[in-house]
Amino acid sequence: RRRIVCTNRPSSSLASRAPLGSSNALISSTTGWENRGEDASENTPPILVAVKDNIVTSDLLTTCASALLQNYQSPYEAFVATKLCEKGWNIMGKANMDEFGMGSHSTNSFFGAVRNGEYSAGGSSGGSAMSLVDGQCSFAIGTDTGGSVRLPAAYSGVVGFKPSYGLLSRTGVIPYANSLDTVGVLAHSVEAAHTAFRAMNSTVDDNDPSTLSQESRNRAGQVRKTASDDLKKRAQHGVKNETRPILQGVRIGVPTEYNIIELQHEVRVAWRRSLSMLQDVGCTLVPVSLPNTKHALSAYYILAPAEASSNLAKYDGVRYGSREQPSDGVGDVLYSKTRDGFGDEVKRRILLGSYTLSSKAIDNYFIKAQKVRRLVQRDFNHVFSMANPLQNPKHFDLADMDESVQLDSKLGPAQVDFIICPTAPTLPPKLDQVLDQTPVDNYMNDVFTVPASLAGLPAISIPFKISSSSERYEPRVSAGSTSSIGIQIIGQYYDDEGVLGISRLFE
Ligand code: GLN
Questions:
Q1: CA 175 – ligand 1 centroid, Å
Q2: Which residues of the chain fall short of a pLDDT of 50?
Q3: Does residue 305 line the site of ligand 1, with CB under 6 A?
Q4: What burial letters (b/e) apply to 401-438, b meaning 16+ CB within 10 Å?
Q5: Same-domain status, 98 and 166
Q6: What is the CATH number of the domain that holds 462?
Q7: Residue 414 in domain
Q8: How far does the centroid of ligand 1 lie from the alpha carbon of residue 72, in Å?
Q9: CA–CA distance from 8 to each of 129, 415, 443 (Å)?
Q10: What's the predicted TM-score (pTM) here?
């Protein structure tokens, strides 16, 4: 059906990795595109989609940007890829990324770093974001485990949507951390992201046990309907606004814990302006407290490597990868030759994960992090007016909460529809700065994206531009601009349509 025309060549040194000026966004690409869509006519161009290289496709290799999978051809196609092809869209190429999705700047790739000019494209779906920015596709598919769709979207000036966990099938998505992995969409507009999301969410996949069944979707849909009926009632009581009356009564949560000292000035300004824009169209702003946010990043960096260390056990030269001699490490050897092909960050995560799962450390690390994850989920349930459809309402009574949580919740039970905060604390850093950073500095970029991941909530990053000369609100940014600032909208579980709906305001 399609033919490979280009395959990126790996090289070891950063200097020779990518030709100057190139974003190095694609690892492989196809040709022979056709306009096969439902609305196709002779005059409409074919719709092209870039797919992150950890999602398997039947015509192109799937490498996860890893030396170990550099020649891997999947025998089948991912569920989401099939859905895109059924729409008549063309998978035009496989996008570069951080190896196995581990990273925040798309620099940990066997095929060389993705470049957003001199700046970080964000990661790990940086290749998906830059293939859009380069105009190579209409939208791009990525995966988001702890922010990997939203962070590149924020840094590259495009829209990045991570749906609720369990909506889009993970069949054919090479796992990084199964309990967090989510397929997401990057596009130039919310509308395009919405169209792609709907295409991939059009049917339920029975082969992925972590995908919500139709029955659960129906139940969750009922909960959502109750919440939106309530919102409509509130809207009728609001002051009439000629332009956008539907937004009367919408309550926007502003999480006080996200106003951290490290927040770059421009980011704080963008956040403030996005809030006043919402106020101007009739929304009510409500300060909310998510007290466990401060522990979310640490919990994420225990849970994700733990799951990764288990997932990556299959790269043993028998099931995946190639067997080297001598096959096993002896004595002080940490990595046998067979497993030496992983990049440094992947090796670091395997070590971290193996340690936190070891019998001596598991109680103090892995189990504690699981508890923090629950508290993060509970914080969100506490502030959203819509009930979490996955939870028994009896289970999130404030009275049952730990005393520390109750004491921290000084702001009381705020009942909001959406939460708005920045996607990242800073503007995109320069690539050479990133390469000098410690791994922990790198992890800090995810501080605002991991809470929604731990709770499995739908979240979107919308590009926002602030001009230093005026206080005027300017919602559109030129893609790839280093002054783009991602504003994140988070909704209750299964309120994906609500999140996408309110995001349209920013267009
Ligand atoms: N930066 C985070 C990590 O390295 C998130 C990655 C992702 O969402 N795939 O784990």
A1: 12
A2: 1-6, 8-21, 238-239, 241, 243-245, 395-399, 401, 403-409, 469-480
A3: no
A4: beeebeebbebeebebbbbbbbbbbbbbbebeebeebe
A5: yes
A6: 3.90.1300.10
A7: yes
A8: 22
A9: 17, 50, 28
A10: 0.90
